[in-house]
Write a structure and sequence with these properties.
six-stranded mixed β-sheet, alpha/beta, 284 residues, 53% helix, 6 strands, elongated
Length: 284
């Protein structure tokens, strides 16, 4: 069985549930001093299961009047900004009790650690905040901060701890104190073969579900296309039939008028059986 890398989301979660490592990452990424961390969803890292397959947050922690969400993203996926906005809404919804004043919302920090550059600007760190376009220096004081770390640009990172973390993600080389500590935990957790086996099994099941969903979507699209084609064909046939019928009726009317049979012209418009007999009789 292959080893799980630090970038594997289950491995990442389990490592980040070590308070010392999580604290170092938060402090380096956001420039904060973190005194205490309490994890809100650590059990999903140690017991990965089916209930975590939906939209979920990786590592959620709180402390010192703040709440933190730390996410790992390996592949380049679109709509990262909207994902961060969605996770922000979850933090805000769960961070305020019913009837509590908005002032009691804790400061929130969302960190995405990405193996690919999500925005394509080549920056090692992207700091995203809400600002007033008309007055960029205005502090709207909404109490949140979003950061994205890009492992592809690890060599350009100014903070040595951030650079060490991103270098390890990108190259697997553990040069610094943080990366050596992480690498040691990764090795230790890979020896927990029951947990590793559960992770691989779960990921295979999830991949199979995604493939089936994709195949069902493709087949549904094909069936909808066939149905649309049949409907369009029926409509085209009806239209062609209407045009042909109008053309035959016009020819019959012209023939009857030419022969002075004005009474038959009136009857043709009122009696379909009589009209059909004339079509056969006159070969129209």
């Amino acid at each position: 069985m292959d080893r799980l890398a630090f970038s594997n989301r289950w491995m990442f979660n389990r490592v980040m549930c070590q308070e010392g490592i999580c604290r170092q990452v938060i402090e380096a990424a956001f420039g904060l001093k973190v005194e205490r961390i309490d994890y809100l969803n650590a059990e999903q890292a140690f017991e990965p299961g089916a209930e975590t397959r939906g939209v979920r947050m990786d590592v959620v922690a709180k402390g010192d009047g703040r709440v933190y969400d730390i996410e790992m993203q390996v592949a380049s996926r679109g709509s990262l900004g909207k994902r961060m906005r969605y996770y922000q809404s979850i933090l805000d919804t769960t961070g305020l009790g019913r009837g509590e004043d908005y002032e009691r919302l804790p400061q929130s920090f969302i960190l995405f650690v990405c193996c690919a550059d999500p925005f394509g600007a080549g920056l090692p760190v992207y700091t995203l905040r809400r600002t007033c376009l008309e007055a960029p220096s205005l502090d709207v004081d909404e109490g949140s901060c979003w950061k994205v770390l890009n492992a592809r640009a690890w060599e350009r990172a100014h903070d040595p701890v951030v650079g060490d973390l991103l270098e390890y993600l990108q190259t697997g080389v553990a040069d610094g104190a943080l990366s050596r500590e992480i690498d040691g935990l990764v090795g230790s957790y890979n020896e927990d073969w029951k947990w590793v086996s559960r992770v691989f099994t779960l990921e295979q099941e999830m991949a199979l579900e995604r493939r089936h969903a994709k195949e069902e979507g493709i087949e549904q699209g094909r069936e909808e296309g066939r149905a649309e084609g049949r409907a369009e064909g029926r409509e085209e046939g009806r239209e062609e039939g209407r045009e042909e019928g109008m053309s035959r009726l016009a020819a019959l009317t012209a023939r009857l008028v030419g022969e002075g049979r004005s009474d038959d012209v009136v009857r043709v418009s009122e009696d379909p059986a009589f009209r059909d007999r004339l079509f056969a009789e006159l070969g129209i």
